[in-house]
Fold this sequence. Notes:
heterodimer; A: alpha/beta; Rossmann fold; Arc Repressor Mutant, subunit A; four-stranded antiparallel sheet; about 45% helix; B: alpha+beta; Beta-Lactamase; 4 domains; five-stranded antiparallel sheet; five-stranded mixed sheet; 10 helices; 13 strands; rod-shaped
Amino acid sequence: MKLLIIEDEHLLAETMMAYLNKEGYQCEWVDNLEKAKTKSWDYEYDCLVVDVNLPDGKGFEVVKQLKEMRSDCGIIIISAKHALDDKIYGLEIGADDYLTKPFDLVELNARIKSILRRRNFNAQNTIVFNEIEVFPNDKNVKVNNEFIKLTKKEYDLLLYFITNLHRVIPKSSIAEHLWGDQMDMADSYDFIYSHLKNLRKKILKKNGKDYIQTVYGVGYKFTDE
Amino acid sequence: MKLLRFTNQYYFIGLLIASLVGSVLAFYITKYNINEGFNQKLYAEKEQLIHELNEFDELLSTYTLNIGDKINIKKVDEDPRIETFIKDTVMYSTYEKNNLNHRQILFSEKIKENYYIISITKSLLSQENLIKDVLEIIFVIIILLFLTMVLLANIVSKIVWKPFYDTLFQLRSYNIKKSESLKLLPTKVLEFNELNTTIENMTFQVEKDYKLLREYTENVSHEIQTPLAIIKNKIELLLQDQTLNEEHLITLAQLHQSTGRLSRLSKNLSILTKIENNQFVENTEIYLADYIKERIEDFEELLILKDIELTTKFKDNPKLLLNETLAYLLFNNLISNAIKHNIKGGGIAIEITDKSFVITNTGKPLIVSKVELFNRFVKSTNSSESTGLGLSMVKKIISFYNFYIAYKNEDNLHVITVLFIKKNILNTKNIF
């Protein structure tokens, strides 16, 4: 999977690349609009991560160019502005998703994966982790080949974990993923705990293993290591 | 007090004193002059009478003449030596059938070897009438003067003060948040021109400062997000480091949380600034009861978890014209506030009528004062996750729409009432 990161802030781009490379993506990075336009013209990428504010113009230009090329590359727009207009405009011209700075890398990763999954629906569209199989189209989950019934939040949580395997995920990132930034954080931690408890119970019931590790004071980790 | 009334008040007092003094003076001067004239006339008549008595013999046989002036001629034997003098007397007039004031001149004279005491009595009636007439005229003049003054003062002040009122009107409709700057009309009056230039300079400076501040707030809020993203993401990378011990991880998680809080804080401040700058202009129609139902659904999990019972009483479903983002922030903040400051097993009641939204919740007594409740950074909990901006945002939105909000404590229940204004209520549709 090839990604192109268009971001003028070197440190930020560097961090994003470090994280996404570990996820097994091939990442390339450009720091201005012109280079971004040339790169995305010359090569084919699976997903583009575009910052709106670039030194030589708006990141929207790349999105427009890709749409003119009828490329089916996924596009995530990143903006420092919490402006609804930017978001609406970005999605209107064909971007797949929108993130505001500061975002969690876990969240970015989850969004990229979700886009890639949607783009790829010819292939078998399930995510398998050991005995757990997730069907993103129907929002169903099988454990040891048996369907388990999850609530929407439990499903979101499981998918989030499975797209971010073996990672320490801070509680605040989970909370933001599930409820956005409107929820009072202190409350949401109790929530996460209760949802996790139920999720764990449901998986164990079908003789699944408990992959959810608590990282004390930090958050959780979904891993079989 | 209006300026016109204020200045007129002094003019009136001045004019009143002047006219009082003037009329008193006019009264006495007129009276004196008329008296003098009257007396002169009596003396003249005396001379004329003596002359005529000396000329015509037969006149002496008439002792009393009572036509117009009363003339009394009394023959005496020896010289009475009466000095000519004038006195006022009251006499009965058969014509007027009344006692009337008269003035009499009395003198003695030697005519054709005989001595006579002669008196001429003149009715004062005409003279009194004259004084009365004069006074009446003075009063009429004073009243005319007053009327003219009021009229003139009104007209003059309208003309003279027009530029002032123009300036005042423009200042009143002036809004720093709008991009139009103040354009005051030039006038002929030096003082007003000076006033206008001073005001223009002042507003120009204020506008400049305001714009700078606005840009500053916006820039800070935006520019801060990129470094925050770097910090947050670097921490996330570090968290994956297997070599770190538990203590390190906890510290990193705390840093991660604080970064999130800082970001939320600056986003909320930026929203507050945007509200202040009227940047939320696009309105949509919102059916309040339906909208609140949706919002409550968002909070369902939280309500269950905190064991709070939420009851609704929707008497009406008013259609409001609000900006979507602001409506969301307003009601979301109010409901989340009622949940946040609630107690386990407590309750929330939401009531909607055609022009109000009332949210009541159980909870601990307020530690902050009622007045401060809607201020920025006032927190009733020490929770480090609270930005302390929720209710202040509510207040901002309320005042943006000229709505009314009030807090009261009733039987240990916290009650927040929002009253909408007509402008934003499109109609009420009863769907229940």
